Amino acid sequence: MQTLSQDLDLACVNTLRTLSIDAIQKANSGHPGLPLGAAPMAFALWQHHLAHDPRDPAWPDRDRFVLSAGHGSMLLYSLLHLTGYPLGMDDLKSFRQWHSRTPGHPETFATPGVEATTGPLGQGAANSVGMAMAERMLAGRFNKPGHKLVDHYTYALLGDGCMMEGVTAEAASLAGQHKLGKLIWLYDSNDVSLDGPTSLSFSVEDVAARFRAYGWQVQRVEQGDTDLAGISRAIAAAKAESNMPSLIIVRTTIGYGSPSKQGTCEAHGSPLGTDELAATKRALGWDPALSFHVPAQAQEHFRAGVARAAAVRAAWDKTREAYAKAYPDLAREFDRRMAGELPEDFAARCERELPRWESGAIATRDAGGKALNALAAIVPELCGGDADLSSSTKTSIAGEGDHGLEHPSARNVRFGVREHAMGAIGNGLLYHGGVRPFVSTFFVFADYMRPAVRLAALCKLPLVCVWTHDSVAVGEDGPTHQPVEQLASLRAMHNLRVVRPADANETAQAWRLALESDAAPVALVLSRQKLEVLPGTATKAREGVARGAYVLSEAEGGQPEVLLIATGSEVALALAAQKRLSGEGRRARVVSMPCWSSFAAQDASYRDAVLPPGVRARVSIEAGASFGWERWIGDCGVALALDGYGASAPGERVLAELGFTVERVVQAAKASLASAGGRGA
């Protein structure tokens, strides 16, 4: 039987360490260095500070813990197992295996108790900023004198790699700007990365000075391998600081306890090996013959920490009960928001209050701003902001003010020029719950947000991305600001709904669709230039946008010979070409296709009704890359697209010079008709 150390806390730390390295060795894959080095700080936090409830992992007022250094996932899984989450020993033994609840990096959809899906370094750090921001927003909205319904902390554990990533720098800068006093980062500072010592690439920078300059409280724990009391004191001091976020730099030894590998990159990303595993256990005072062993006294001690947290939960339950009696309407709103549900009257109010246009010309970015404000009056949890571009992207909620320490319930977030962090912070707001965020920038800079958007798609987070200045029609700013390939590349991202509306009515309905989406991010790709309100969209856009594509204008005089399929501003061009073709005796149908993925998800009968298989003459019209359009236009179709870059000139001139004219559409239609046998069939 394992003989416990006199220091029961340290025995628990070693239980975390050995469980983790056993699982990694069994999988023959993983990162043992972080669990061995960071186990003390994780234990000190979970045992003595973290408010959580293994019986109810979604308890609204729990503290959030994010393992930003997600490669150390076995440390988190060991914590979850030992503190009573529904993660059994067999799950630990299935680490990194097919359909396991212990995947290689933490995944919210795979494992109870995981707060954020972390893998790309720095994303989790930025997620934690969003979580802390959500806590403040909800506290500002719901807390009343004598009734603190929302009052918790957000913690993240970062490594040297996280600290090197630009997204972490952006997120930390914003957190300091917003004085997020309930955000606490634990930095596993071990001076080793995958390729070797951090002196190869990360030795000149003074991280502590950087964070002080960001407006953070900074503390150091120099003996992080063993000084559990020092770590706990630092966490307590961080919790006591209410006006700035806190960074605790914990000096650790990567692979602590491994006689041959500790302190080196060899402990980072590969199993220790059977001989070194045994040697490490001996160095930690563990019997090397024991595998996946949890001493009874250690398990009991872990559960004592859970009991401490359970008392916090029990006190909150009483607070919640008293709050519901004192503020029943707010209590119901809180429950609804934390459940991720829209207001009961959402659909009815949208029908009454969403703007609708019959005529005129309005840029879809402007229409989007009007729709946003109408929806903000219906959905109080709607919040967000942009990369210092609200005057251009029209993403400001009127009358709300700017979120911050002095205005915690305000719904406009000033992200500044920080697109990398903005997307990940938006995900963090959603991970926390209770809010529905949007984020915005120019479409060409969507590439800066791509890692966060991909994670939103992977995790089925309904992030709303408002991307304006959607094509070469941006004009004078030139090709650096004119998106071309972005539509095609983002459409390739599974579970991201990319919507490029044709006019104001489609835009309003796209915004509604975005809020109705509960399992996918939605990208609204909007124009800078004014677009005419198109005939028929006032009545057709609701269903048409939801289905992804619809017949906007039917061919005159019988069945269509050629299909003109367009998105965004080019739908108006398709309508003009339809009129020209009709005058020449050709029957053309105009299809508006704002969202490829939504249309692809429709049943075959609807798709065939919109794009009849027998009509092989087809033209796609879109001021973007042609890639992917072959799916919709077939082997006889012609893609009027842009497989190059734009130029600096007025937008109308750029479009004309690049071939987006009525004449070119008509020529393309005739070419497709000829390819299809003359009459489209």
Brief rundown of the structure:
The protein has 681 residues and is an alpha/beta fold. It is built from 26 helices and 20 strands. The strands form 5 sheets. A 6-stranded parallel β-sheet has the order 10-9-11-12-14-13, with helices on both faces. A 5-stranded parallel β-sheet has the order 1-2-3-7-6, sandwiched between helices.
Structure write-up:
By secondary structure, the chain is of the alpha/beta class. The chain has three domains: 8-311, Rossmann fold, CATH 3.40.50.970; 346-532, Rossmann fold; 542-675, 3-Layer(aba) Sandwich (Rossmann fold), CATH 3.40.50.920. The chain is built from 26 helices and 20 strands. Helix 21 (570-583) links the parallel strand 17 and strand 18. Helix 2 packs parallel to helix 3 and helix 16 runs parallel beside helix 17. The protein is elongated. The relative contact order is 0.09. Mean pLDDT is 96; it is low at 1-5.
Strand order of the largest sheet: 10-9-11-12-14-13
User: What is the assembly state of the chains in this entry?
Assistant: single chain
Percent of residues in helical segments?
40-55%
Span from first to last CA?
81 Å
Average pLDDT, all residues: 96
Characteristic terms for this protein:
alpha/beta, elongated, 20 strands, 44% helix, Rossmann fold, 681 residues, 5-stranded parallel sheet, disordered N terminus
How are the secondary structure elements laid out?
Blueprint lengths: L7 H20 L5 H16 L15 E4 L5 H10 L6 H5 L29 H20 L11 E6 H5 L1 H12 L5 E7 L2 E2 L2 E2 L9 H8 L2 E5 L6 H13 L5 E6 L22 H10 L12 H31 L1 H11 L7 H8 L7 E3 H15 L3 E5 L3 H4 L18 E3 L4 H14 L3 E7 L3 H14 L4 E5 L17 H6 L5 E3 L4 H13 L5 E4 L4 E3 L4 H11 L2 E4 L8 E5 L3 H14 L4 E5 L3 H5 L3 H7 L6 E5 L8 H4 L4 E3 L10 H7 L4 H14 L6
Parallel strand pairs: 1-2, 2-3, 3-7, 6-7, 9-10, 9-11, 11-12, 12-14, 13-14, 17-18, 17-19, 19-20
Antiparallel strand pairs: 4-5, 8-15, 16-18
